[in-house]
């Protein structure tokens, strides 16, 4: 049974219902996404694959913020229409997810396509006296929520100490946040509170969860940087709207550090995901993310990426050799996959590092079984590894499916059988040059 550590309570939550919902906060599409955006996407992709593999009825929603000050400022700077700009980066993001072998989510809603629903959601909060209007701006009143701060473990009094109070603040409380912003700058819509405005960031996700999933999502997550204030404010609105927590389980993915330093704009050490894909394929990138617990920080460096590349090459070459051995000995691969050992490990809070160890154990078995000429057992392990790849989202192709490679392997085997070792060595060198073995 799948268990996820709830970052709100630090306790393992059993995901024991058959119908499971996932919500992962998506990017604000004003530029190409960086490697920090991709880590949660890959993490939740493995979770999604695991739930589907274990026969859960799962719905996965991943939003796109295509209305935001960053988008508007970028559009003004580049003299573009806001939605045309955001749609361009939305399309490039979807293309990137595909190249990363990330399964398409069930619902990928854009904020711009849900304005009417968001307005009605905010209106209900105003009608319930959980929000108030000042000069056309709508604010959420955090004082109406008894447990504000529970998701992020923040103490309201401590938060207030760090807030610089404005002299003429419109807010009842400095921590109150905007649900609907009055503005004529950039794209805007008419609402009950003003003729020109747009939604606040924190309202988008809670509304979309209510629309596409319901009053409560099973697992809600994203990068750890979203824990406060974004997820805290989402949860507060749901407490007010539905009188219940927004999520049964909160799942936050750790930061990416670059060469030991936290990735930040001030240090100018952002690395775009598209640039990494020019240097490493998706298998290497995914494998790199699997080396550390998803909630922990992860250090990106060329050395670590090259190490992951070497790992993938070793694993794939070991599989290639196993297929060659099975082909040479006339073994048809018809075993039924049995990866219960792997499933038991990864179901424990999506334990990717120990899941990787299971892969290595099975890869080691490949050479052991080949040396013992235990071909049926070897066939079983090959099938199991390929099945594990489905859950991890790794893509491997049997090189013997290529007729040219198959012919080369057959010539190599025939030369060995005829004890023409010099010729066999030449064929073997060709296989090495083709990175088959």
Top keywords for this entry?
13 strands, 437 residues, alpha/beta, 47% helix, 4-stranded parallel beta sheet, elongated, 4-stranded antiparallel beta sheet, single chain
Describe this protein's structure.
With 437 residues, the chain is α/β, with parallel strands linked by helices. The chain has helices spanning 35-53, 69-78, 82-99, 115-127, 156-161, 201-212, 227-242, 273-277, 282-289, 302-328, 340-346, 352-371, 375-392, 403-417, 421-433; strands spanning 3-6, 11-14, 19-24, 57-62, 131-134, 137-140, 177-182, 197-199, 217-223, 247-253, 256-258, 261-262, 298-300. The chain has a four-stranded parallel β-sheet, sandwiched between helices. Strands 5-6-7-8 form a four-stranded antiparallel β-sheet. Strands 12-11-13 form a three-stranded mixed β-sheet. Strand 9, helix 7 (227-242) and strand 10 (247-253) form a beta-alpha-beta unit. The protein is elongated and about 90 Å long.
Short description:
By secondary structure, the chain is an alpha/beta fold. Helix content is 47%, strand content 14%.
User: What composes the largest sheet?
Assistant: 4 strands, parallel
Report helical residue fraction.
40-55%
Straight-line distance between termini: 38 Å
Shape estimate: elongated
Structural class: alpha/beta
Task: From the alpha carbons, calculate the radius of gyration and give it in angstroms.
Answer: 26 Å
Number of helices: 15
Count of β-strands: 13
Question: Mean of residue pLDDT?
Answer: 95
Report the order of strands and helices: EEEHEHHHEEHEEHEHEEEHHEHHHHHH
Oligomer: single chain
Strand order of the largest sheet: 4-3-9-10
Relative strand content: 5-15%
Poorly predicted spans: none
């Amino acid at each position: 049974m799948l268990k996820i550590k709830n970052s709100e309570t630090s306790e393992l939550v059993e995901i024991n219902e058959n119908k499971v919902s996932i919500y992962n906060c998506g990017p604000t599409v004003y530029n190409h996404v960086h490697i920090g955006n991709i880590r949660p996407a890959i993490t939740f992709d493995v979770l999604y694959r695991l739930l589907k593999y274990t026969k859960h009825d799962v719905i996965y929603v991943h939003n796109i913020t295509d209305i935001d000050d960053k988008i508007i400022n970028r559009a003004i700077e580049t003299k573009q229409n806001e939605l045309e700009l955001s749609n361009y980066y939305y399309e490039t993001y979807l293309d990137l997810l595909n190249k990363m072998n990330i399964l398409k989510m069930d619902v990928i809603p854009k904020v711009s396509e849900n304005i009417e629903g968001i307005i009605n959601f905010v209106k209900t909060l105003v009608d319930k006296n959980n929000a108030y209007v000042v000069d056309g701006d709508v604010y959420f009143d955090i004082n109406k929520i008894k447990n504000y701060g529970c998701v992020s473990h923040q103490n309201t009094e401590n938060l207030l100490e760090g807030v610089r109070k404005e002299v003429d603040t419109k807010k009842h409380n400095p921590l109150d946040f905007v649900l609907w912003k009055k503005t004529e700058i950039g794209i805007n819509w008419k609402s009950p509170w003003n003729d020109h405005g747009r939604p606040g960031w924190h309202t988008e996700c809670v509304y979309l969860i209510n629309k596409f999933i319901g009053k409560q999502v099973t697992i809600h997550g994203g990068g750890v940087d979203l824990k406060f204030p974004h997820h805290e404010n989402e949860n507060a609105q749901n407490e007010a709207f539905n009188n219940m927590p927004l999520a049964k389980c909160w799942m936050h993915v750790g930061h990416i550090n670059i060469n030991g330093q936290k990735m930040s704009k001030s240090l100018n050490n952002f690395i775009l995901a598209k640039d990494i894909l020019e240097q490493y394929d998706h298998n290497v990138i995914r494998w790199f993310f699997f080396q550390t617990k998803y909630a922990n920080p992860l250090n990106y460096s060329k050395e670590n990426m090259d190490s992951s590349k070497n790992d993938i090459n070793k694993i794939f070459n070991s599989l290639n050799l196993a297929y060659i051995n099975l082909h040479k000995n006339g073994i048809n691969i018809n075993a039924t996959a049995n990866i219960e050992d792997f499933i038991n490990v990864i179901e424990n809070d999506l334990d990717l590092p120990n899941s990787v160890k299971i892969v290595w154990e099975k890869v080691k078995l490949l050479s052991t079984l080949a040396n013992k000429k235990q071909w049926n057992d070897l066939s079983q392990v090959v099938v199991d590894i390929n099945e594990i790849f489905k859950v991890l989202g790794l893509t491997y192709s049997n090189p013997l499916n290529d007729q040219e490679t198959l012919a080369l392997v057959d010539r190599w085997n025939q030369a060995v059988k005829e004890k023409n070792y010099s010729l066999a060595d030449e064929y073997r060198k060709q296989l090495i040059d083709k990175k088959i073995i």
